[in-house]
Amino acid sequence: MRKPLKKTITLALLTAVSLILFTVEMQFPPLTPFPWIKIGLANTITLFILYRRGFTALDAFLVVIARVLLAALITGSPTALLFSFCGGIAAVTAMLAFIKTVSGKKPPPAITSVAGALAHNITQIAIAVFVYGGFGVLMYLPALIIGGIMSGVITGLVTTVVLKRL
Protein backbone atom coordinates (compact mmCIF):
# COMPACT_ATOMS: atom_id res chain seq x y z
CA MET A 1 0.00 0.00 0.00
CA ARG A 2 1.31 3.49 -0.87
CA LYS A 3 2.50 5.48 2.15
CA PRO A 4 0.15 8.49 1.70
CA LEU A 5 -2.85 6.17 1.39
CA LYS A 6 -1.81 4.18 4.44
CA LYS A 7 -1.42 7.39 6.47
CA THR A 8 -4.82 8.68 5.30
CA ILE A 9 -6.48 5.42 6.32
CA THR A 10 -4.69 5.50 9.69
CA LEU A 11 -5.85 9.08 10.33
CA ALA A 12 -9.41 8.13 9.37
CA LEU A 13 -9.31 5.24 11.83
CA LEU A 14 -7.89 7.48 14.56
CA THR A 15 -10.67 9.99 13.86
CA ALA A 16 -13.23 7.20 14.19
CA VAL A 17 -11.71 6.02 17.50
CA SER A 18 -11.70 9.61 18.73
CA LEU A 19 -15.36 10.01 17.82
CA ILE A 20 -16.23 6.71 19.51
CA LEU A 21 -14.46 7.84 22.69
CA PHE A 22 -16.36 11.15 22.55
CA THR A 23 -19.67 9.33 22.08
CA VAL A 24 -18.98 6.86 24.89
CA GLU A 25 -18.00 9.67 27.24
CA MET A 26 -21.27 11.47 26.49
CA GLN A 27 -23.06 8.48 28.04
CA PHE A 28 -21.30 8.89 31.41
CA PRO A 29 -23.22 10.69 34.12
CA PRO A 30 -21.63 13.99 35.17
CA LEU A 31 -18.56 13.39 37.32
CA THR A 32 -18.76 16.81 38.99
CA PRO A 33 -21.51 19.26 39.96
CA PHE A 34 -20.63 21.00 36.67
CA PRO A 35 -22.00 18.73 33.94
CA TRP A 36 -19.89 20.34 31.20
CA ILE A 37 -16.62 19.21 32.82
CA LYS A 38 -15.60 16.02 31.04
CA ILE A 39 -12.49 13.85 31.09
CA GLY A 40 -11.93 14.39 27.38
CA LEU A 41 -11.10 10.83 26.39
CA ALA A 42 -11.05 11.82 22.70
CA ASN A 43 -8.02 13.94 23.54
CA THR A 44 -6.01 10.73 24.05
CA ILE A 45 -6.05 10.33 20.27
CA THR A 46 -4.74 13.86 19.74
CA LEU A 47 -1.95 13.21 22.23
CA PHE A 48 -1.19 9.88 20.58
CA ILE A 49 -0.74 11.66 17.24
CA LEU A 50 1.49 14.33 18.78
CA TYR A 51 3.72 11.75 20.48
CA ARG A 52 3.83 8.97 17.92
CA ARG A 53 6.49 9.09 15.25
CA GLY A 54 5.28 9.46 11.68
CA PHE A 55 2.56 12.01 12.39
CA THR A 56 2.68 15.77 11.97
CA ALA A 57 1.07 18.71 13.72
CA LEU A 58 -1.24 19.05 10.73
CA ASP A 59 -2.41 15.47 11.31
CA ALA A 60 -3.41 16.37 14.88
CA PHE A 61 -5.33 19.43 13.69
CA LEU A 62 -7.11 17.46 10.95
CA VAL A 63 -8.23 14.71 13.31
CA VAL A 64 -9.52 17.23 15.87
CA ILE A 65 -11.39 19.21 13.21
CA ALA A 66 -12.93 16.06 11.71
CA ARG A 67 -13.97 14.77 15.15
CA VAL A 68 -15.50 18.10 16.16
CA LEU A 69 -17.47 18.37 12.92
CA LEU A 70 -18.72 14.78 13.13
CA ALA A 71 -19.58 15.17 16.83
CA ALA A 72 -21.59 18.29 15.99
CA LEU A 73 -23.54 16.26 13.45
CA ILE A 74 -24.23 13.62 16.11
CA THR A 75 -25.27 16.07 18.81
CA GLY A 76 -27.00 18.49 16.45
CA SER A 77 -25.74 21.50 18.35
CA PRO A 78 -24.29 24.45 16.40
CA THR A 79 -23.31 26.18 19.64
CA ALA A 80 -21.39 23.08 20.73
CA LEU A 81 -19.66 23.15 17.34
CA LEU A 82 -18.40 26.69 17.96
CA PHE A 83 -17.21 25.93 21.49
CA SER A 84 -15.65 22.56 20.61
CA PHE A 85 -13.99 23.81 17.43
CA CYS A 86 -12.37 26.82 19.10
CA GLY A 87 -11.45 24.82 22.21
CA GLY A 88 -10.01 21.95 20.16
CA ILE A 89 -7.86 24.22 17.99
CA ALA A 90 -6.63 26.07 21.09
CA ALA A 91 -5.82 22.78 22.82
CA VAL A 92 -3.77 21.38 19.93
CA THR A 93 -1.98 24.72 19.52
CA ALA A 94 -1.14 24.87 23.23
CA MET A 95 0.07 21.27 23.30
CA LEU A 96 2.28 21.84 20.25
CA ALA A 97 3.67 25.06 21.72
CA PHE A 98 4.34 23.29 25.02
CA ILE A 99 6.13 20.39 23.31
CA LYS A 100 8.24 22.80 21.22
CA THR A 101 9.27 25.00 24.15
CA VAL A 102 10.62 22.12 26.21
CA SER A 103 14.16 21.50 25.03
CA GLY A 104 15.40 17.99 24.42
CA LYS A 105 12.93 15.16 24.99
CA LYS A 106 9.20 15.64 24.75
CA PRO A 107 7.57 16.29 28.13
CA PRO A 108 5.36 13.56 29.60
CA PRO A 109 1.96 13.38 27.87
CA ALA A 110 0.16 14.15 31.15
CA ILE A 111 1.82 17.56 31.42
CA THR A 112 1.24 18.34 27.75
CA SER A 113 -2.38 17.26 28.12
CA VAL A 114 -2.90 19.61 31.07
CA ALA A 115 -1.64 22.50 28.91
CA GLY A 116 -4.14 21.52 26.21
CA ALA A 117 -7.02 21.09 28.63
CA LEU A 118 -6.40 24.48 30.22
CA ALA A 119 -6.18 26.16 26.80
CA HIS A 120 -9.42 24.42 25.79
CA ASN A 121 -11.28 25.57 28.91
CA ILE A 122 -9.97 29.14 28.85
CA THR A 123 -10.87 29.44 25.17
CA GLN A 124 -14.37 28.15 25.83
CA ILE A 125 -14.82 30.73 28.60
CA ALA A 126 -13.65 33.46 26.21
CA ILE A 127 -16.12 32.24 23.57
CA ALA A 128 -18.90 32.20 26.19
CA VAL A 129 -18.12 35.81 27.13
CA PHE A 130 -18.30 36.75 23.45
CA VAL A 131 -21.45 34.73 22.62
CA TYR A 132 -23.46 35.46 25.74
CA GLY A 133 -22.20 39.01 26.20
CA GLY A 134 -21.23 39.19 29.83
CA PHE A 135 -18.49 38.34 32.23
CA GLY A 136 -20.69 36.28 34.58
CA VAL A 137 -19.35 33.07 33.05
CA LEU A 138 -15.92 33.92 34.47
CA MET A 139 -17.12 32.61 37.82
CA TYR A 140 -16.85 29.10 36.29
CA LEU A 141 -13.17 29.57 35.46
CA PRO A 142 -11.77 28.20 38.77
CA ALA A 143 -13.84 25.00 38.41
CA LEU A 144 -12.78 24.67 34.77
CA ILE A 145 -9.12 25.13 35.68
CA ILE A 146 -9.31 22.43 38.35
CA GLY A 147 -11.28 20.19 35.98
CA GLY A 148 -8.76 20.85 33.20
CA ILE A 149 -5.85 19.86 35.38
CA MET A 150 -7.56 16.66 36.53
CA SER A 151 -8.81 15.65 33.07
CA GLY A 152 -5.45 16.54 31.50
CA VAL A 153 -3.62 14.26 33.90
CA ILE A 154 -6.08 11.41 33.30
CA THR A 155 -5.96 11.61 29.50
CA GLY A 156 -2.19 12.03 29.61
CA LEU A 157 -1.77 8.91 31.74
CA VAL A 158 -4.09 6.92 29.47
CA THR A 159 -2.06 8.07 26.46
CA THR A 160 1.19 7.08 28.18
CA VAL A 161 -0.13 3.55 28.70
CA VAL A 162 -1.31 3.33 25.08
CA LEU A 163 2.02 4.60 23.74
CA LYS A 164 3.95 2.03 25.80
CA ARG A 165 1.74 -0.83 24.61
CA LEU A 166 1.81 0.04 20.91
N- and C-termini, Cα separation: 21 Å
Helicity, as a percent range:
over 70%
Q: Note the run of SSEs as H and E.
A: HHHHHH
User: Helical segment tally?
Assistant: 6
SS content category: mainly alpha
Q: Strand share of the residues?
A: under 5%
Question: How many β-strand stretches?
Answer: 0
Question: Biggest sheet: strands, sense, closure?
Answer: none
Instruction: Give start-end ranges of low-pLDDT stretches.
Output: none
What does this structure look like?
- 75% of the residues lie in helices and 0% in strands.
- By secondary structure, the chain is mainly alpha-helical.
- Helix 2 (43-51) packs antiparallel against helix 3 and helix 5 runs antiparallel to helix 6 (141-165).
- The protein is globular.
What's the arrangement of secondary structure elements?
Layout: H1 3-26, H2 43-51, H3 57-75, H4 78-101, H5 109-132, H6 141-165
Helix pairs in contact: 1-2, 1-3, 2-3, 2-6, 3-4, 4-5, 5-6
Provide a brief overview of the structure:
The chain has 166 residues and is an all-alpha fold. It is built from six helices and no strands.
